[in-house]
Amino acid sequence: MKNAEDSPLKVRGVRGVIKVRALSQLPNLDEEDNLRSQGYELIAGIDEVGRGALAGPVVAGAVILPHSTNLSWFELVRDSKELNSRKRESLFDLINKEAVAVGIGIVPPQVIDSMNILRATRLAMMQAVEKLPKQPHFLIIDRVTLSQCPIPQRGITRGDKSCLSIACASIIAKVTRDRIMEEFDKTYPGYGFARHKGYGTGTHLSCLQKLGPSPIHRLYFAPVRNIITGLGSSPLASGHSEPFASFHTEPSTQCHSEPSLFCHSEGVPMKSGRPKNLRDPSPSPRSGSGRHKGG
User: Fold this and answer.
1) Are 24 and 5 in contact (CB under 8 A)?
2) How many Cβ atoms from other residues are within 10 Å of residue 184's Cβ?
3) Within 13 Å, how many C-alpha atoms sit on residue 7's CB side?
4) Where among 213, 243, 273 does a domain terminate?
5) pLDDT tens per residue, range 254-274
6) Is residue 249 part of a domain?
7) DSSP-derived 3-state class of residue 123
8) I need a labelling partner for 91 at 20 to 30 A (CA). Which of 177, 238, 239, 294 fits?
9) CA distance 37 to 281
10) Which backbone phi and psi does 126 adopt, to 5 degrees?
11) Is 106 helix (H, G, I), strand (E, B) or coil?
12) Structural domain of 132
């Protein structure tokens, strides 16, 4: 009988579905090395945090790691959910110091309510890629893909547990979002945002029942909506316009979830990140192909 940890996981590739064994191993550079052997030099790992919260933004991180494999802190990296806050903070600083590039995307609750959480998550990921100071040649993403982005990419199930770049991105996103929620705890006291970070704990729901929704609650998430209905309040009555002033208007269609072009934050269309003369990665990569020198 097979052990659950030995069961292969399905991964969506550029040209189909491949299988990887990820449960029984720590985050490593196998995926990145595989892609580099095919000529993709700058590989960005992407992950999000806050997708299931009832309050606050959804935050995405994008990280391009250096080629070096002798950085001792690599061995300390895990999916952010498996680390305590002290270890996450320490690794956050190391990643920012040693990574080739780091980008962060933040989508506030107003925008989450105006679309849906999956589209908002993809928007945050797009923002994180846009904010990388170097344009990646390939994206490896936890679970999802960005169909509107022309950069070659792969969605990897449980990628935050198997791929080092994605795990690093999860740490960047988690620490960033935790800090945001700790600040909101000062702005909107009484909800306990510094403790539960906006997730639907019993304490949070109890406070929400007593105080009603704050300006950073996601009004159309069922637990919040149900409490609003019970209080006899309209969702539009919430002061939902103050916390993220820069997001008052509808997001640019260039960064929306349906655009045909992927754009820098300045609105200039990006060319595809794939180096010239490269094939799409295949399920059975061949070593020895030439590498593109990253800029």
Assistant:
1) yes
2) 22
3) 7
4) 243
5) 333 333 223 332 222 333 333
6) no
7) helix
8) 294
9) 10
10) -60, -45
11) strand
12) 4-183
| 169 contacts 29 by C-beta, under 8 angstroms | no
**Segment 122-134, tens digit of pLDDT:** 999 999 999 999 9
pTM of the model: 0.73
Q: Is residue 22 domain-shared with residue 161, that is, in the same domain?
A: yes
Distance separating alpha carbons of residues 22 and 140, to the nearest angstrom: 14
**Helix residue ranges per DSSP H, 62-192:** 85-98, 109-114, 117-130, 159-162, 164-187
Residue 91 maps to a domain: yes
Structure tokens at 199: 């997730």
Same domain, 105 and 140: yes
Distance CA 237, CA 188 (A): 17
Strand order in the sheet with 58-64: 16-20, 9-13, 153-156, 138-142, 43-49, 58-64, 101-107
Residue found under tokens 């189909």: 16
Q: Are residues 47 and 107 in the same domain?
A: yes
Tokens of 196: 């539960």
